[in-house]
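User: For my dataset I need records formatted as: sequence, then structure tokens, nothing else. Please produce one.
Assistant:
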Amino acid sequence: MECMADRSQFLRYSSLMKSIPLLFALLLVSLFAAPVHAVDQLFELDAEEWAQPRHGELLIAYPALRGAVGAAGAEGRITIRHGGGEQGMLWAAELRDWLVALGIPSSRLEIAPGGQREGVIELVVTPDSAPIAR
């Protein structure tokens, strides 16, 4: 009787082992067949940081700017979102001008209102030249 139980367990185990390669293959196919979507990244630059005297070396040391430019790569776009008002627009325009002076093509930069917090500029990176949602 014990031998019969061992044999049935062996057969179940054996059939399971035969199906593992098929399950693994299906998993791989589903992973590679799934569409890959680029994800926007958000970096924030606060007014306190921006209030320091500005020059090129200092600007590229800001983690938000370094991160945004790095995430954008050669093809990505950067949307500079400000909190609104004249002061926010001026800040965003100055930042755009600095980015252009540091070598980012102006065609890859956009200024838009809609920042979520006062005193913070949001840099939204849209990778791989995907269109910017408005």
